[in-house]
């Protein structure tokens, strides 16, 4: 599989082309040149990315960046002005949409309906026979630790348990692809672990999974690839390691006797953070870590000098502010 090199701003990332695998498997999700406008406002501009079978794709961006709009277009809830969404090479139509498991950010449940009856109803809407629907409800409510609440109305549940029911609704018909909008919102740490395990299981079954989240540490930990969206455009995409290595090199320096401004004389270096003799320095393309070390030593003893790559949270801030 040949890599496709794409440049987004100052980031150059390698994103695999999954077309062959997706066509063969029939479950890969492709967002191809999708654009959407509301009057003078551009919600999406040539949004393009793929989610391969068995891939967990993190979709991140600021509020209003276009994540939810992209997902709604993928579901057919909204119509794109241009571009196309395909599942396994096939344009998404009503039949294809039945194969997608969707979890909206806003609660999409009937609050007064009982949990078990509601999940069975949704499963039958997706084409399952009644007996199969009931079996699926039993399986997923047990897996998500809400089996003891199947006879309770949704409105009587905590927000965390409502989120579990919402995930069960996305999974109950055994979908070929999962599209989840902020699935970890409002969950306690135990529920986050359960949700993460379920997504990992679906990935191991070859299901493409895309989810949006503002919990970037979680995205960094569990996702195979990440796309960062800014103002309706895909600004950076790749594995976390690809994105981190495309970002600027940073050096943590512990020089307790260094005076303020000691980094100013080092070409290509700028201070990111400085506290109690510890300085985080970013090196630009013309920066030299050995020149930085020499400057630090001139101020007195250097207790540590460590090169590091930015976290996904730091990368996100850099991309969004660029």
UniProtKB/TrEMBL annotation:
Belongs to the ABC transporter superfamily. This is ATP-binding cassette domain-containing protein. SMART domains: AAA. Residues 29-256 form the ABC transporter domain. It comes from the Bacteria. Keywords: ATP-binding, Nucleotide-binding, Transport. Pfam families: ABC_tran (PF00005), DrrA1-3_C (PF13732). SUPFAM superfamilies: P-loop containing nucleoside triphosphate hydrolases. It comes from Nocardioides lentus. GO terms for molecular function: ATP binding. The keyword Glycoprotein does not apply. The keyword ATP-binding applies. PROSITE patterns: ABC_TRANSPORTER_1, ABC_TRANSPORTER_2.
């Amino acid at each position: 599989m040949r890599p496709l090199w794409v440049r987004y701003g100052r980031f150059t990332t390698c994103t695999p082309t999954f077309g062959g695998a997706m066509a063969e498997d029939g479950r890969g999700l492709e967002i191809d040149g999708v654009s959407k406008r509301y009057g003078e406002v551009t919600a999406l501009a040539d949004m393009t990315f793929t989610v391969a079978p068995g891939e967990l794709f993190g979709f991140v961006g600021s509020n209003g960046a276009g994540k939810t709009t992209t997902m709604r277009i993928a579901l057919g809830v909204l119509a794109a002005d241009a571009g196309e969404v395909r599942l396994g090479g096939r344009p998404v139509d009503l039949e294809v949409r039945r194969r997608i498991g969707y979890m909206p950010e806003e609660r999409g449940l009937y609050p007064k309906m009982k949990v078990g009856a509601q999940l069975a109803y949704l499963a039958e809407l997706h084409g399952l026979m009644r007996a199969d629907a009931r079996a699926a409800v039993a399986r997923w409510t047990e897996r998500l630790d809400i089996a003891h609440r199947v006879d309770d109305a949704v409105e009587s549940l905590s927000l965390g348990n409502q989120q579990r029911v919402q995930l069960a609704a996305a999974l109950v018909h055994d979908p070929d692809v999962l599209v989840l909008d902020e699935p970890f919102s409002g969950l306690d740490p135990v529920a986050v672990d359960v949700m993460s395990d379920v997504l990992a299981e679906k990935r191991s079954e070859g299901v493409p999974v895309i989810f949006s989240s503002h919990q970037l540490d979680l995205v960094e930990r569990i996702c195979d690839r990440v796309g960062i969206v800014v103002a309706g455009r895909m600004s950076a995409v790749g594995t976390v390691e690809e994105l981190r290595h495309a970002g600027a090199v940073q050096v943590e320096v512990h020089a307790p006797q260094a005076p303020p401004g000691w980094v100013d004389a080092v070409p290509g270096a700028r201070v990111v953070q400085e506290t109690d003799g510890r300085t985080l320095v970013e090196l630009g393309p013309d920066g030299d870590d050995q020149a930085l070390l020499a400057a630090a030593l001139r101020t007195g003893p250097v207790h540590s000098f460590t090169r590091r790559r930015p976290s996904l949270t730091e990368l996100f801030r850099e991309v969004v502010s660029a």
